[in-house]
Amino acid sequence: MNKERREKIEGAKAQLEEAAAILEECKDEEQEYLDNMPENMQGGEKADAAQEAIDSLDNAIDSTDEAISALEEIE
């Protein structure tokens, strides 16, 4: 692989790492929101939606990490 393509791949990897960090921050904020929710709301729709968002963010982070790992194998 030539230098130009390697640089493009490295740039894409850096963007994925930044995206993963942003997703992790959002997940942490959503988890904090859920953890601080009043007890009377913890079994409600908002709590369910927050948990679904956390689960989806976890899946997105895992997928991003897999993509980063795949790109590291190219180098």
Write a brief caption for the model.
By secondary structure, this protein is mainly α.
Helix content: over 70%
Q: In angstroms, what separates the terminal alpha carbons?
A: 9 Å
Tally of discrete structural domains: 1
Which spans have pLDDT < 50 for at least 5 consecutive residues? none
What is the C-alpha radius of gyration, as a whole number of Å? Answer: 17 Å
Please tally the helical runs, counting DSSP H or I stretches of 4 or more residues. 2
Query: What's the shape?
Result: rod-shaped
Mean pLDDT: 95
Helix-strand sequence: HH
What multimeric state do the chains show?
Answer: single chain
Largest β-sheet summary: none
- The number of strands is 0
Determine the structural class based on helices, strands and strand pairing: mainly alpha
Beta fraction of the residues?
under 5%
